DNA sequence: TTAGGATTTG
């Protein structure tokens, strides 16, 4: 009998405790001590209502005071009782009872920071072989009832619009963004979570823990969390949450109507009707106030050049090299494009060989890089994963005629990139498991070939592809914007003619370069006709760092046409930053209309300013005026676009020339106008591509030189806009579908001109596409 | 301490 009531007669227990048990002092209740055959005895000073845990077990918590030291909170300890013993104790225990517990397990107390009691608590259950003896005082009515009134801990929750710097609070929120836990550069795992609540205020929390299990178990945007003891700090002018001692979290599925079951590693938590109500209310609020993405992407629905989250099962894994690791996964559907296979040594491949072979046409190789390698290595074969922000990249190997799709999980954690392990209880996993089992069933019935499986998995995408294909075969995928009355000329005729001439052609796009579309963007100077690569961010950063060495000239601050603000950074570098806000009519403008100049800023600071202000011009002080930085850096930033000047053709003028624009009635701050007054020859972003065109009579290479017209996408915006990159990739996939035979390629109608290029003794005819655009229903 | 959301270009 695990819970025994022992009567006290004449101040002594009527029945003695079993003789093998020895009394343990409170000070010996420490980890590392052997507590076998020991018991602890104390007075019940507090007990909580009986509650149910998420696994359905009863839970009862009480507090015992050490009888030798009866005045200090330090000398009290929490007792957590599980299962039937919890129910039994709850029924009989009274405030003031002498309580004896044996066969307990010692655990670190998660509430020590809050209740100031003993650093450990005792875990007690029948399964653990615990025993409880309660010395009962004579029961009376009235007084003792009052004394044993239960005290439920009451938590107050702060709304996200009421957070104050330096406080520790409890809060609820709907997950708007999250990074699944990853290995930080310090000693802990880190997870970043952005919450919103009905006050419409966002809070980004940075959570650290050495124990992966104690970080919130968030699986998707829209999940609801409850954080206890999160510390609020101000960072960059915004409130930020960070883990504090005793941080604890519960996570709930955000689906309206789903069971309200908390996901937590904590065995002890309060969760009652009131909390359930809060979760349900937040679900309803989120459903109409947050955009939560629809059904997850499947392998059968992947598009090249996209980032997506994949819910899948791990079939195999292998080391590749120091900075990358291979995961072979499947989700039961088939990718409609040829996929790459990462070459690895057979002995390095972990996983069931037979299954790997059976599923060889359904698994895809995901190569994970850098910081994800450590986590990937630790994954168990057969586990269910959600891989966040996988990149599908189109590429072709040297010896391949057609391109394939690659799956990369790049390094870093931007956009929540990472790997999460989903428990089998997760509804998405349950659904996936059921689907995978049906696929495996089909497989075992048809061991000879995978065809029926493949068809099942891809039926939708095959029909999609077919209809798309038909459209492509019927109509040309590019159209002329002029010269419609001209007749087509065969490529063979063009190749045998002298240049320069102009032709209308009908041809297929066999291949194009560069395959990496971002490499097609160049900067062009319309004055000297030079082309150059778009500088990368590192070069800009370097120039900014170099310019920060120049001390700001105070005499150049606060002039008639701009107001200046200067401050020194708090870090050890003590950097001086000056921002000059250009005025209009002696007034500062709204941020979205404001041009500002910055001295001494970092790349990150400049970038942040571009999000808020219309134009940002990085400058440095000279003796008599501000001046532009080296022209390898952008001289102007507007939104996401960096504007560069031609080093050869520009003659930079003093910055005060800008005041003429500021004095205009409505300064529009057009880059061309700014460039002009500053003596800068503006470089323009262009697409430069080489199309290999064929028409059955011959093949020729034609260059595409396009600012915007062909793709109907401004070349200036493509590098900073991922959506446009995807759009452009999809356009190219329609013009030249990956993995397609020659006969199945669509027709292009183009206008091309031939021209002569003489380089010393060498003479060559080149072709350029012009007055052509991608058909309206393709873009 | 770590990271502090805002895709790589392997």
Automatic annotation (TrEMBL):
GO annotation, cellular component aspect: nuclear telomere cap complex; nucleoplasm
InterPro entries hit by this protein: NA-bd_OB-fold, POT1, POT1_C_insert, POT1PC, Telomer_end-bd_POT1/Cdc13
Gene3D superfamilies reported in the protein's UniProt record: Nucleic acid-binding proteins
GO molecular function, one term: G-rich strand telomeric DNA binding
Domain Telomeric single stranded DNA binding POT1/Cdc13: 157-287
UniProt-listed Pfam families: POT1, POT1_C_insert, POT1PC
GO biological process, one term: regulation of telomere maintenance via telomerase
Keyword Nucleus attributed: yes
Key words, A-Z: Chromosome, DNA-binding, Nucleus, Telomere
Record's subcellular location: Chromosome, Telomere; Nucleus
Domain of life: Eukaryota
Family listed: Belongs to the telombin family.
Protein name (database record): Protection of telomeres protein 1
């Amino acid at each position: 009998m695990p819970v025994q009531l022992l009567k006290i007669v004449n101040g002594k227990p009527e029945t003695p405790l079993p003789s093998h048990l020895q009394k343990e002092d409170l000070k010996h209740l420490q980890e590392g001590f052997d507590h076998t055959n020991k018991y602890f005895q104390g007075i019940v000073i507090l007990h909580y209502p009986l509650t149910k845990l998420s696994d359905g077990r009863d839970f009862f918590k009480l507090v015992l005071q050490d009888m030798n030291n009866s005045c200090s909170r330090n000398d009290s300890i929490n007792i957590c009782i599980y299962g039937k013993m919890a129910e039994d104790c709850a029924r009989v225990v009274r405030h003031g009872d002498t309580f004896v517990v044996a066969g307990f397990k010692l655990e670190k107390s998660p509430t020590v920071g809050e209740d100031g009691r003993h650093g450990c608590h005792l875990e007690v259950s029948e399964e653990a072989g615990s025993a409880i003896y309660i010395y009962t005082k004579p029961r009376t009515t009235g007084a003792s009832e009052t004394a044993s009134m239960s005290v439920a801990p009451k938590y107050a929750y702060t709304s996200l619009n009421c957070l104050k710097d330096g406080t520790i609070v409890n809060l609820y929120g709907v997950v708007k963004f999250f990074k699944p836990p990853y290995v930080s550069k310090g000693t802990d795992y880190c997870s970043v979570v952005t919450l919103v609540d009905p006050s419409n205020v966002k809070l980004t929390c940075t959570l650290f823990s050495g124990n992966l299990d104690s970080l919130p178990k968030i699986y998707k945007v829209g999940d609801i969390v409850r954080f206890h003891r999160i510390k609020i700090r101000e960072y960059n002018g915004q409130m930020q949450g960070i883990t504090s001692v005793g941080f604890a979290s519960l996570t709930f599925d955000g689906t309206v109507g789903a069971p309200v079951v908390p996901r937590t590693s904590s065995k002890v938590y309060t969760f009652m009707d009131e909390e359930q109500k809060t979760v349900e209310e937040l679900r309803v609020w989120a459903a109409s106030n947050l955009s939560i993405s629809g059904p997850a992407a499947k392998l059968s629905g992947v598009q090249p050049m996209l980032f997506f989250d994949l819910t899948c099962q791990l079939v195999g894994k292998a080391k590749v090299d120091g900075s990358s690791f291979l995961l072979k996964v499947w989700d039961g559907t088939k990718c409609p494009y040829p996929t790459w296979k990462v070459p690895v040594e057979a002995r390095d491949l972990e996983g069931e060989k037979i299954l790997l072979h059976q599923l060889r046409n359904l698994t895809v190789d995901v190569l994970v890089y850098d910081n994800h390698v450590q986590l990937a290595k630790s994954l168990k074969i057969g586990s269910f994963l959600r891989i966040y922000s996988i990149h599908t990249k189109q590429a072709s190997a040297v010896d391949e005629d057609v391109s394939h799709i690659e799956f990369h999980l790049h390094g870093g954690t931007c956009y929540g990139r990472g790997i999460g392990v989903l428990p089998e209880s997760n509804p998405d996993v349950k659904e996936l498991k059921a689907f995978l089992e049906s696929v495996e069933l089909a497989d075992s019935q048809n061991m000879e070939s995978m065809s029926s499986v493949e068809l099942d998995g891809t039926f939708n995408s095959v029909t999609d592809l077919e209809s798309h294909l038909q459209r492509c075969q019927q109509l040309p995928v590019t159209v002329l914007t002029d010269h419609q009355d001209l007749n087509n000329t065969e490529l063979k005729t063009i190749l045998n003619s002298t240049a320069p001439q102009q032709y209308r052609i009908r041809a297929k796009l066999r291949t194009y370069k560069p395959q990496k579309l971002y490499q097609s963007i160049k900067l062009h100077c319309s004055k000297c006709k030079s082309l150059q690569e778009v500088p990368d961010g590192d070069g800009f950063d370097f120039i900014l760092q170099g310019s920060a060495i120049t001390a700001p000239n105070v005499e150049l601050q606060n002039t008639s046409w701009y107001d200046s603000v200067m401050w020194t950074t708090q870090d050890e570098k003590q950097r001086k930053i000056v921002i000059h806000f250009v005025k209009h009519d002696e007034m500062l403008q709204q941020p979205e209309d404001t041009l500002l100049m910055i001295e001494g800023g970092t790349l990150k600071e400049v970038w942040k300013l571009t999000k808020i202000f219309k134009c940002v011009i990085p400058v440095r002080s000279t003796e008599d005026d501000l001046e532009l930085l080296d022209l390898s850096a952008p001289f102007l930033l507007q939104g996401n676009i960096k504007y560069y000047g031609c080093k050869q053709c520009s003659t930079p003028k003093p910055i005060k020339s800008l005041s003429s624009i500021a004095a205009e009635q409505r300064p529009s701050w057009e880059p061309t106008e700014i460039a002009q007054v500053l003596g800068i020859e503006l470089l323009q972003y262009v697409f430069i591509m080489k199309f290999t065109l064929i028409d059955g009579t011959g093949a020729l290479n034609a260059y595409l030189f396009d600012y915007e017209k062909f793709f109907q996408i401004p070349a200036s915006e493509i590098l900073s806009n991922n959506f446009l990159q995807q759009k452009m990739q999809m356009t190219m996939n329609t013009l030249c579908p990956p993995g397609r035979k020659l006969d199945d390629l669509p027709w292009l109608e183009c206008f091309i001109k031939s021209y002569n290029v003489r380089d010393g003794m060498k003479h060559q005819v080149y072709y350029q596409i012009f007055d052509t655009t991608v058909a309206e229903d393709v873009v």
